[in-house]
Design brief:
The complex is a heterodimer of chains A (106) and B (164). Chain A is an all-alpha fold. Chain A has one domain: Helix Hairpins (Orthogonal Bundle), CATH 1.10.287.3510. Helices cover 77% and strands 2% of the residues of chain A. Chain A has helices at 4-24, 28-57, 63-93, and one strand at 2-3. The longest helix of chain A is centred in the C-terminal third of the chain and has 31 residues, at 63-93. Chain A is elongated. Chain A starts with a strand and ends in a 13-residue tail after the last helix. Chain B has helices at 2-22, 26-46, 50-74, 87-110, 112-115, 127-134, 139-160; one strand at residues 117-118. Chain B is built from seven helices and one strand, in the order αααααβαα. Chain B is globular. Chain B folds into two domains: 1-79, NADH-ubiquinone/plastoquinone oxidoreductase chain 6, subunit NuoJ (Four Helix Bundle (Hemerythrin (Met), subunit A)); 126-164. Chain B is mostly helical and 164 residues long. Chain B starts with a helix and ends with a helix. The chains are: A mainly alpha (106), B mainly alpha (164). At the A-B interface, strand 1, helix 1, helix 2 and helix 3 of A face helix 1, helix 2, helix 3, helix 4 and strand 1 of B.
Chain lengths: 106, 164
């Protein structure tokens, strides 16, 4: 038996590492990967809470897992489009460093 | 048994995520992210989500990460250079993430009794249970996602195509 709180703490740890990586990394692909890490952490929370909700209501609840399914679908679409945008940026500016892609910065 | 598996794969998750944060080389970060996602699949199985565990391996550690490694190799992205334009991120980043972690951990652990215990093997959500809801109650959102995927494919092709 594992307390469900442990799963939530694990997902909080993963999410915080994702936030830190998002803020500290300077490479656009690394930043994109830390977004994926945060999405995964939230998915773990959804699955853990699905389990808890089933326990409370006494019969099987699947809504949380449906959410995770849709998150996965959207993440796949987002990864494809995002990586295409990264390729386009690399072609135009010849760099992957976000500090050098600053046309819109005031 | 459950606790042992949880500790092993939870530690693997955290180690992979930290490696993602600390590695300077992009391909190492991508490979450690694959470790995180595969261990998360095992954790999903422990929580009784068999379809999601399979989908996690196929979609995340399969499709998405292969796409990432392909782009890293295609752009020949090597070491990440350090720049000094990100002082603010260092000042705000680490304390912000640490505060977030401390707050969430405190809340979850102080209410750990009300979150209950997860036993291995109860409330197993099979693929049949999931698809029964997905193909009856949620048929319209499911079909809309197929349109979304189609548009994403078109967008990816249009964006990544060489300009003439």
């Amino acid at each position: 038996m594992v307390p469900i709180a442990y799963y939530l703490v694990l997902s909080a740890i993963l999410f915080s590492i994702g936030v830190a990586a998002f803020l500290i990394k300077r490479n656009i692909i690394s930043i994109f990967m830390s977004i994926e890490l945060m999405l995964n952490a939230v998915n773990l929370t959804f699955v853990a809470f699905t389990r808890r909700w089933s326990q409370i209501t006494g019969h099987l609840q699947v809504s949380g897992q449906i959410f995770v399914f849709f998150v996965m679908v959207v993440a796949a679409a987002e990864a494809a489009v995002g990586l295409a945008i990264i390729i386009a940026i690399f072609r135009a500016r010849n760099t992957l460093n976000v500090d050098q892609v600053d046309l819109m910065k005031l | 048994m459950h606790l042992t598996l949880f500790i092993i794969f939870g530690a693997l998750c955290v180690a992979g995520a930290l490696n993602l944060l600390l590695q300077r080389h992009l391909i190492n970060s991508a490979l450690s992210l694959i470790v995180v996602m595969s261990s998360l699949a095992v954790l999903y199985l422990l929580l009784g989500a068999e379809f999601l565990a399979a989908a996690q391996v196929i979609v995340y550690s399969g499709a998405i990460m292969v796409l990432f490694t392909f782009v890293i190799m295609l752009l020949n992205a090597g070491r990440e250079e350090r720049t000094h334009g990100s002082k603010m991120a260092y000042i705000a980043g680490f304390p912000g993430a640490a505060i977030l972690l401390a707050l969430l951990t405190f809340i979850f652990l102080s209410h750990r009794d009300s979150f209950g215990q997860a036993r291995l093997g109860e409330y197993l959500v099979t693929t049949g249970d999931l698809s029964q809801v997905l193909f009856t109650k949620l048929l319209l959102p499911f079909e809309v996602t197929s349109v979304l995927i189609l548009i994403a494919i078109l967008g990816a092709v249009a964006l990544a195509r060489k300009e003439h």
